[in-house]
Design goal:
With 64 residues, this protein is an alpha+beta fold. The protein contains two helices and four strands.
C-alpha cells in the first residue's frame, strides 16, 4: 500500500484509502497532494472506517 501511495497508482483507487495523521485528511492512492512521510500514513479498507477514525475527505481528490 505504501508503494501504491508513493507511486500514485490510480489502479488502486477504491481498493483502499489512506489517512495522514498530521493533517487529518483521507485520500485515494492516486491523490496529487503533497507526499506525506510514511510514518504518518494510516490505511483503511473503506471511507467509513477512515471517517470513524477521525479523518476528513480530501478536497483535492474527493475520495468520498
Amino acid at each position: 500500500m505504501k508503494e501504491a501511495v508513493r507511486s500514485r497508482d490510480a489502479a488502486q483507487d477504491g481498493q483502499f484509502f489512506y489517512g495522514v495523521v498530521t493533517t487529518g485528511i483521507v485520500c485515494k492512492p492516486s491523490c496529487s497532494s503533497r507526499a506525506a512521510k510514511p510514518e504518518n500514513l494510516r490505511f483503511f479498507a473503506d471511507m467509513d472506517a477512515a471517517i470513524l477514525a477521525g479523518f476528513r475527505p480530501c478536497k483535492r481528490c474527493r475520495p468520498a
